[in-house]
Design brief:
The protein is an alpha/beta fold. 40% of the residues lie in helices and 19% in strands. It has a single domain (11-227), classed as Rossmann fold, CATH 3.40.50.300. Helix 5 links the parallel strand 6 (150-155) and strand 7. One of its GO terms (biological process) is tRNA methylation. GO terms for molecular function: GTP binding; hydrolase activity. This is P-loop containing nucleoside triphosphate hydrolase protein.
């Protein structure tokens, strides 16, 4: 496991060590957002178990970066989910905002140096989009530039009507006006299903699971397509450079309107 400086080493949790060892393809997903936004609950949604510690109070429950290995895409794609420290806590919080931002920036820099980040998930509570969302977005964008896609996941939408997607329709314009651009989005609920859960909540949680997994899968697929194309592009560029140094160079003598002109091979002339 890689070491990421900050408030100790990330804690690694896996669904099954033996099962995960058979899957060599890994997608690294970093989840970030304010304290109480539902990042740990989002981890549990994707994992399908209550793996990550959650809290319902305003104080964050994640005090260090935790890493969870889960399998999606019919259990053929291993996803490494990075559950980061919540942003926005005051000086008296478990991890003050200044420290949380420092730890997150260092994690991103180390990941991009040591391995790679395939996707960044900005987790926000499903309330009205405000200018405050920009602060965390700008922090991440300044670190990764355009190298890593950022997607938005709005949580706590179990009671949103008529459908959870309505949140995006209500806030898309404001998000754009604030200067935030996302490569994709998912409107979800991470509410726990118990024996008293109704059919509507069960259906919405299932939709939420598929929506989040689809975000991960589509950007992993995009990278699969882009990587071979980049390799082909590098090969073509190298080949063209080699050919350009070997091929004869010609000079055309005469006027463009003249039907008679002379072609001279400069290499032969030399």
């Amino acid at each position: 496991m890689s070491s990421f400086p900050g408030r100790g080493l990330p804690t690694l949790h896996t669904q099954s060590q033996s099962e995960a060892s058979h899957h060599t393809e890994t997608c690294n997903v970093v989840i970030f957002g304010e304290t109480g936004a539902g990042k740990s609950s989002l981890i549990n949604l994707v994992a399908g178990t209550q793996t990550a510690l959650t809290s319902c109070d305003a104080m964050g429950c994640t005090t260090e970066t935790n890493v969870y290995d889960v399998l999606i895409q019919n259990r053929t794609l291993k996803v490494k989910l990075f559950d980061t420290v919540g942003l926005g806590e005051g000086p008296e919080g478990k991890v003050p905002d200044k420290d949380a931002r420092r730890v997150l920036k260092k994690l991103l820099r180390d990941l991009m140096k040591q391995t790679d980040i395939h996707l960044l998930m900005y987790c926000v509570r499903g309330v009205r989009a405000t200018k405050a969302l920009c602060r965390n977005y700008d922090l991440i964008r300044s670190e990764v530039k355009e190298r890593v896609p950022i997607v938005l996941v709005a949580t706590s939408l179990e009671d949103k009507g008529p459908e959870m997607e309505e949140w995006w329709k209500d806030n898309e314009r404001s998000i754009s006006d604030f200067g935030m651009t996302f490569a994709g989005h998912a409107c979800v609920t991470t509410a726990t299903i118990d024996e008293y859960a109704g059919d509507k909540l069960k259906r919405r949680r299932k939709q939420s699971y598929h929506a989040v997994c689809q975000l991960i899968e589509q950007y992993r697929l995009l990278e699969r397509v882009q990587t071979p194309l980049l390799d082909v592009g590098r090969w073509l560029h190298s080949t063209i450079q080699q050919v350009s140094t070997m091929a004869p160079r010609y000079v055309v003598l005469g006027y463009s309107s003249c039907p008679y002109f002379t072609i001279i091979d400069e290499q032969e002339k030399a």
